[in-house]
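Worked example (supplementary).
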Amino acid sequence: MPNSIDSWLAAACADAERRGLPELKPLLEALARSTAALRAADESHRASVRPSSPKEPE
Amino acid sequence: MSAPDLRRIVDIAPLVRSKAISATKLVENCLHEIAVQQPVNAFTTVLEASALEEAREADAQIASGGWRGPLHGVPVAIKDLIDVAGTRTTSGSAVPSVEARTDAPVVTRLREAGAIVIGKTNLHEFAYGTTSEETAFGPVRNPLDLSRSAGGSSGGSAAALAAGMCFGAVGTDTGGSIRIPSAACGTVGLKPTYDELPLTGIVPLSGSFDHVGPMARSVADAILLFQAMQGAEPGGLEPGVGRLTFGIPYRYFCDRVDDDVASALARARTALTEAGHVVVDLEIAHAEWTPDVYLHVMLPEASWYHASLLERHASSYSPGVRLRLEMGRYVKAEDYVRAGHLRAVLRESVNAALADVDALLLPTLPMAAPVLGAQTVPVAGKQEPVRGAMLRLTQLFNVTGHPSIALPAGKGGDGMPRGLQLVGREAATISLLRAALVVERQISGGAGSVGGGTG
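After joint prediction of all chains, the assembly is encoded as:
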């Protein structure tokens, strides 16, 4: 499965269509928004606890 | 019921013990209420014959000096997601189910304490919803207003209690499914600490969020049921003593609630303060992550259990439940793991919030029970999707596993109940229950209140 949320959503909607479940599309769109929020929260949290990056040697 | 002041187990138990009232009479009264209030649709199965037989046996045991305790001869209802020997565990679904050969351990323990199983209660199909209207048995209706939902997913259990069809009930709670219907119907519901009561013999929704717990018309009754479900002696508890400290997490949990809910919380704060307790404002860090973390754990866990059933019986599911189960198949593994990591952060956030208080105090639902069939519900002047609104204030404590109890806190201007919940420290359910006895005493009995002493 592709990793970017846009490409994941496109693939998921196509798969749902192929399986005869087009009514899943709005739910998948809502899931995509939630996934984007989850990843943003994770990134923000990791940035807040990550130790300072070591400096490049001069 | 002919004696509305005798709706609490703690009030009727001495009468049963002294033979002033018989177990048979209690069961007959409950069966009568089930029959005359059929439009509530609280039950999927009524065990009339076996309940009456068990009641006669209880009466005979009590007559011969064999009173087993305060639950002896007391009719209880079991959510039809939980195994009761000799009945099909339908989960409120048309998906084929099988007859349970044995009771779930929580049912066994209630029976050992002398309780009588009067029937199995209707629910949102497979506990996968908050309104109890997607069910193969027809929607559960709120006994206080039949046009409204009883909440869910344990809607039948709460409705049965509110309608006087049983004295205690068992529900399950994955995102609020004990506490939400308790708030909707004006009853009490306890979600214990995660893994405190056994889930064996209970159809799972989301294994790492699922809890089973008691539902009742008072905190004292919930305590008796909880103790029995633990396999302990149902001896009750004394209220917490001395000055207790409560913390209200206004941000996120009180940002969007209706005026009647805000008033109920304000009244509780005033009453507790006037009684000598301390109420402080506090914050639960990152609470806004909750719906996203919840969704990415719950969806795939639910889909795991149903994967093979969906392949064979897709058309037997309610359309909405089926779609939510299908949706879970698209959650990526890395997002499930990501949610797990954030879940640990949320658990520490709740622990930090509870560090200097005895319990958190917050609303259970942001509004009254919604009208059946509604897709959105008005909350503080804005329309909000029903499912999101109903889960918003309860689901964090499934994510973190902290014990929480829903308490009735009066009625709003629409005549419908409003509820508050208390959240206790990890693995400190008993301390939470002691605090709940204190809070119940302060918030029940006032003008417009429901629950408390009279359910």
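Two points are worth noting when inspecting this output. The first helix of chain B runs from residue 9 to 17. Residues 292-329 of chain B form one domain.
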